[in-house]
Design goal:
Blueprint (H helix, E strand, L loop, with lengths): L1 E5 L8 H11 L3 E4 L18 H10 L3 E10 L6 H18 L3 E5 L9 H16 L8 E5 L7 H10 L5 E6 H6 L5 H8 L3 E6 L1 E4 L11 E4 L8 H10 L5 E4 L12 H12 L5
Parallel strand pairs: 1-2, 1-10, 2-3, 3-4, 4-5, 5-6, 6-7, 7-10
Antiparallel strand pairs: 8-9
Helix pairs in contact: 1-2, 4-5, 5-7
């Protein structure tokens, strides 16, 4: 398994710093979810007209682009035109950067619609996306997030969209903390379709100033209460050899540890677990 970091965790790093620190800390790749002040990298020349140079600079530092993380919500019907437009841009950027993975969301509105109805919207959207030039050469991976965290719901979406170019991104923190599931339960539902993973840890500490609305707060990997090591063990036992990504949401939670602290701490924690 290879390890990567997401630019969501280092919103102030430019490309030089991404290359330098990524190599220094021992990462294999980087996942682009924003760059400096722009959340959508497909709007930046660094990743469009100058993408070949950007890719070369990353590769020279020993880094691959593990994924391009989009904002596409495939189960939101009112976003269809916007989804297709972003998908076109993302296909171009992902191919230029040498990434085969694109993160998408399931999303959708459950107020008046069932999961089954939303899954049909997702199927229609993904069919349209996969008809775009170059789309079928990539893997479109929905994150276990928002309305698609619980095993039964995630399996429903995967069963409905059975194209091999569509799969799951297992955010093992979400399925445990929000879904209330064991790693074994989550893997039983989505395991064969997992193409990518997110790792972040948290503790239940409702009286802490940094606690979220559900009473949990993020901490460095290995310092929390989530069954991350167990989930990694399940992946290893089942032959998963893809990316393990450290998702540090510092862009959204500025009080989190600086990347100069969090990123090397993640590498130190995870390397023994992958051996």
């Amino acid at each position: 398994m290879k390890i990567a970091f997401m630019t969501l965790g280092c919103p102030n790093w430019n490309l030089d710093t991404i290359c330098q620190r990524g190599a220094e800390y021992g990462f294999d790749g980087v996942d682009f979810r924003g760059y400096l002040d722009e959340i959508d990298i497909t709007k930046l020349a660094l990743f469009t007209t100058h993408a070949a140079e950007t890719r070369q600079r990353l590769n020279d530092a020993g880094l691959l682009v593990s994924a391009v993380s989009s904002s596409i919500q495939v189960c939101r019907a009112e976003n269809r035109a916007e989804n297709l437009d972003e998908a076109r841009r993302t296909i171009d950027v992902a191919r230029k950067l040498g990434s085969e993975n694109v993160r998408v969301f399931g999303g959708g509105n459950l107020d008046g619609s069932s999961h089954a109805e939303l899954a049909q919207i997702g199927l229609d959207c993904m069919r349209a996306i996969l008809e775009l030039d170059g789309a079928s050469e990539l893997r479109w991976l929905f994150e276990t997030h928002d309305n698609w965290i619980k095993a039964s719901d995630s399996k429903l979406l995967l069963d409905n969209i059975d194209n091999p170019a569509f799969g799951a991104l297992w955010d093992m923190g979400h399925t445990a903390r929000v879904g209330g599931e064991t790693p074994q339960q989550s893997y039983a539902a989505i395991g064969p379709r997992i193409g990518y993973t997110h790792v972040k840890d948290a503790v239940y500490d409702p009286n802490h100033a940094q606690a979220m609305s559900d009473g949990w707060r993020y901490v460095l990997p290995g310092e929390g209460q989530l069954p991350l090591a167990e989930a990694l063990g399940v992946l290893r036992q089942n032959g998963y050899d893809g990316w393990i990504l450290f998702e540090q949401e510092k862009r959204w939670h500025p009080s989190l540890a600086e990347p100069e602290v969090a990123f090397p701490a993640f590498v130190k924690w995870i390397r023994p677990l992958l051996q």
